[in-house]
Amino acid sequence: MGSRELFFLVLLSFLTCLVLVASETNNLDVTSLKALMDGWKNVPPNWVGTDPCGSHWIGIGCTGASITSITLASLSLSGTLSGDIASLSGLTKLDLSYNKGLTGSLPQSIGSLKNLTILCLIGCSFSGPIPDTIGSLPQLSTLSLNRNSFTGRIPSSIGNLKSLYWLDLAENQLTGPLPVSDGTTSGLDQLVNAKHFHLDKNQFTGEIPPQLFAPNMKLIHVLLEFNQLTGSIPSTIGLLQHLEVLRLDGNILTGDVPSNISSLTSVGQLDLSNNQLTGSIPDLGRMTILNTLDLSNNSFQASAFPSWYSNLPSLTTLHMQSTQLEGEVPPNLFTLPQLQTVILRNNQLNGTLNLTSNPSSQLKLVDLRDNKIDSFIERPGVNHVILARNPVCIGEEKLYCRDVQLDHPSYTSESNNCISSTCKVDQTSSPNCLCAYPYTGNLYFRAPTFSDLGNSTIYKILEHSMNVSFTELGLPVDSISLSNPIRNSDKYLELRLEIFPSSAENFNCTGISSIGFVMSNQTFKPPHMFGPYFFIPFTYDHFPGGSNKSVNVAVIIGVVVGGSILVLLAIFIGFYALRQRKRAVKADKKNNPFSSWGSSKDKSGGDIPQLKGARAFSFGEVKKYTNNFSKANDIGSGGYGIVYKGTLPNGHLLAIKRAQKGSMQGAVEFKSEIELLSRVHHKNVVGLVGFCFDQGEQMLVYEYIPNGTLKESLLGKSGIMLDWSRRLRIALGAARGLHYLHELANPPIIHRDIKSNNILLDERLNAKVADFGLSKAMGDSEQTHISTQVKGTMGYMDPEYYMTQHLTDKSDVYSFGVLLLEIVTAKQPIDKGKYIVREVRQRMDKTKVLYDIHELIDPTLLGLTLNGLEKFVEIAMRCVADTAAERPTMGEVVKEIEGVAQMAGMNPNAESSTTSENYEGSSQAFSHPYSDESLSVYK
């Protein structure tokens, strides 16, 4: 052995010993964590070196030399969770919540973490089935997978989790029946120690199994709202003596309400609304601590107002809309001491409404619209009584005879006896008058016991509770601020929460992840009146120094030592790397998706396309993802060819448009199209995932949009009820998408085929503009118009464009105006020879209620409160003005629809609700958004 070789050997031994002395983390855990890092972007800035425990990596907790916790909530991580997680055998806590960039499926190997007690993945983008190996975690007490995109059934193996306390699978796309044990398989009925079943807002079907509930269970929350459950309510639910909240609303439940439901004497909130329940209205007189009761929109037998209400002294909120009540409303109802809201709309109640018998001082709303009340004895102090469309209001102009829209309650935390500071533009003054960058998000309370959202005392109690809790937990929090309380379409109380840092203007990564863990793990317990909650934060972009670099001495030592080792190892592996280079180059060329595109400019394909966010797929990949283009995956067709449903290995769904031979473009045109579409990135525009230009094929790969077209929902083919607020949100989303194309895309794009069949609805009924087959990019030299052959769909087409062949963005505005009329009427633009624009224009009378177009309005909207409809129709008619100069821009349309949304009591920036809400019946089969069902089209 030569002296040089001996030197390197000695040096290597010395450095290895040095690392072993400095390192506190066992090698297997380091290797596993490094493997996880390889699949993630935006990891914390001090994740350097080779000693996570000794260097105190952000979010990494250790016991001795073993990594025992990973808590990285709300740090903008992106990537996938690899199977290497299984090698961290000492892991007890895993919290990756609020990282929307985390995608893909959960690895089966997660079942190897036998010491895991907490698994929180709230508000990420994980998809695919929940692995059945999750039932192999004997210590698991908290399983929170809510607000992801998981599909398939609940694994029956979850029933093996004997230590499980908290089960939250809400707001996914889970299907199938609720699993129960049958002697050979496990089920949810075996979770006797669980207190929380949060299974709402999925797509569960079948009956609620009677064996799901037993007297030895400790459940306090059973949330099954907004699914597709059928059959009757099992009487075994009355055995849950600890139950505090029961929500079964928004399903398709039938039959009688079991009489023993009144034995649930600990229940504070009971919601059975929006089902198809029959029989008598249940006697609930034994539920003496009931705060909120909603039996609305069922098919109960006609009956007088029940007398058991007098046994409910804690009742704050009573909803019995459309429950076939008849007779007089008992005056003593309003004397219940805590009563705040009474909704008895659309019944057969008659006689006199009498509010003079000492009504509750908290009473804020009495809504008896659409009944047969013929007289009203008022009492001053009751703010809102609504009797529209009752006999008492015939010929009357009194305030209570109007469809009054309640004032939106406002609340913002007050300053703590200080003067608010004048802060930088992007900073906020805290309640302690310090300028800072708060950690901000929305708090959602699923079952509050109150309905008076204007009661500031309630929010001050919550503020105090949160401040005390954060202080006791040692979190770096100066103060918190609450604002903007609303009751959203899911009946949740939604509040804006701002958490301000202490001793600095901003939080570091450790502070954010610590607070995120407290919220995701439910460590903070709100006052009882607020009930169960979840928190969805916004992205935090204000770490110290822009990237939150908090590197300490130990990290620097780790970097130096690790760097020395890397240099040494580089010497040893250099020759190996050189030898592998040719092989890697060959592999890269083989796998290069552009290899068949054409290698020179003078060939048909031109240069490799410049893409932004889209990827190229090989023909073999697409063939695999579509199950060999099977008929079962065929979800639509048109002049271009067939659209197939595809599934990526990580469970993500795709819609793949495969051009038929006769409709293929030249390579240059195809490249130009995908370059254009790859630049389009907006939440209200269907996203291009990629393309395939391989083996003589041309395919465009889009994100899969699960809930069909707006047209199908308007025609009642999807099984989704579109109330007025949902239609407004859809119109606003479509307007924002089109505004983006016109003014923010680079280059600007004229869609040229806006219609209800090209507005798709995602899993939360967010509108997405789709189908760019006729679109035109507007170049710098075409700022006024493009002269082009007329293309589009009859009924939606701009007549000025049709006559002049001059295409402008105002041509899209015209089509959008027709779309707005379609949203109001649910009629096709041309129906039986009648043109909807002409019909509305001829009938419209601005001096009358709803502009006297009642006969044209969608019958499913009649009887609902349509605040802002007149303004909405005005916007539509401005859009369909005869000349482009008279029409507004899409930017102006967006602002005006936002105004209509506010008139309707909505937050125009709130996220849409899920599709499972307000089903009229089981979802019917409907043609998919990628089908070519339309009117006559010029293409």
The total count of helices amounts to 14
CATH homologous superfamily classification of the domain at 710-938: Transferase(Phosphotransferase) domain 1
Whole-angstrom Rg: 31 Å
Structural class based on helices, strands and sheet pairing: alpha/beta
CATH architecture name of the domain at 710-938: Orthogonal Bundle
Q: Specify the biggest β-sheet.
A: 15 strands, mixed
With strands numbered from the N-terminus, the spatial order across the biggest sheet is 2-3-5-7-9-11-13-15-17-19-21-23-25-27-29
Whole-Å distance between the termini? 79 Å
- Principal-axis shape equals globular
How many strands?
51
Q: How much helix, percentage-wise, in residues?
A: 10-25%
- Report the CATH C-level class of the domain at 710-938: Mainly Alpha
- CATH fold naming of the domain at 710-938: Transferase(Phosphotransferase), domain 1
Uncertain stretches of 5 or more adjacent residues? 1-23, 547-557, 587-605, 913-939
Q: Overall pLDDT, averaged?
A: 84
β-strand amount:
15-25%
Task: Offer a few descriptive terms.
single chain; 939 residues; alpha/beta; Leucine-rich repeat, LRR (right-handed beta-alpha superhelix); Alpha-Beta Plaits; Phosphorylase Kinase, domain 1; eight-stranded mixed sheet; 14 helices; globular; disordered N terminus
Can you walk me through this structure?
By secondary structure, this protein is α/β, with parallel strands linked by helices. The N and C termini lie far apart (79 Å). A 15-stranded mixed β-sheet has the order 2-3-5-7-9-11-13-15-17-19-21-23-25-27-29. 21% of the residues lie in helices and 21% in strands. Among the domains are: 17-199, Ribonuclease Inhibitor (Leucine-rich repeat, LRR (right-handed beta-alpha superhelix), Alpha-Beta Horseshoe), CATH 3.80.10; 429-545, 2-Layer Sandwich (Alpha-Beta Plaits), CATH 3.30.70; 615-703, Phosphorylase Kinase, domain 1 (2-Layer Sandwich), CATH 3.30.200.20; 710-938, Orthogonal Bundle (Transferase(Phosphotransferase), domain 1). Strand 43 and strand 44 form a beta hairpin. The radius of gyration is 31 Å and the shape is globular.
